[in-house]
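ok trying again, last paste got cut off:
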Amino acid sequence: MSVNEPVRVERFSTVQTYSTPAMIYKEGPNLRNVDPYNRWRTKPGEMATENLVRDLRNSGLFRAVISYSDSGETRYLLEGQVDEFLEVSEKDGRKAVLSLNVTFLDLKKRESSERMIFQRDYRVAEPCVQKTPAGLAQAMSRAMGEISRQILLDLQRALKSR
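nice, full thing came through this time. structure:
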């Protein structure tokens, strides 16, 4: 299935706790710490946006995929927020936890109540095979890949029913 319309992906916002390139980990119910020696290449919102733009382009679902930094008219808009982006220590091991809230809009609809096609929360926890920053990065990459796959499936379903 392919839609003969372009989609714009806005830069994902990030809840304040994770709006940093620092690697954050959780070892207790309400205890979050920052790794003082290791950092992400960019902030979580930018990483999520870049990955979704890449995956949407590779999917061929839309005629074009326009990043927030590019100009151009679009009918559809995908925006979201990173709600969680951290390593969590649990009884069964360490996991990379990624949670996104995503909204998909049809900008050609006049009424704001009709514009929203869907809004969903996605959450994935992937095991960290290695207890290292590289292990966390690999697990977070798998988590992003899984969420991206789920978003693409939801986009296909939503567009098919229109």
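cool. Helices lie at 44-59, 112-115, 133-160. The mean pLDDT is 94.
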